Amino acid sequence: MGSYDKTALIAPWNEPPILCECMQITEADVQEAMMNHRPNTLKELIQCSGAGKGCNACHPILREVLAGLDVSCPSVR
Ligand code: FES
User: Fold this and answer.
1) Ligand 1 close to Cβ of residue 29 (< 6 A)
2) Which residue would you say has higher pLDDT here, 59 or 71?
3) Which of these CATH numbers, 2.60.120.280, 2.60.40.3080, 1.10.10.1100, 2.60.120.260, describes 16-76?
4) Is the confidence at residue 75, as pLDDT, over 60?
5) 22 pocket-lining for ligand 1 (C-beta < 6 Å)
6) Contacts of 66 (CB under 8 A, 6+ apart)
7) What is the pTM of this model?
8) Given this model, what pLDDT does residue 6 score?
């Protein structure tokens, strides 16, 4: 009988969606930064949210957030 981590079985449903994998920033973190800091540029959004400081792969999604698109909708990506 082996043991297993029971939390690993439910973790995918409980974890918030990550927008920036490099910095582990969630969609909620970015939306909160948008509401609190009202950034107008990608550079400002990166500074206030902490997202986008790694490989830059999330920059297109961050630009969509700045444009006011709902990035939580799969059809946007
Ligand atoms: S995924 Fe955001 S910087 Fe790499």
Assistant:
1) no
2) 59
3) 1.10.10.1100
4) no
5) yes
6) 34, 39, 40, 41, 42, 45
7) 0.76
8) 56
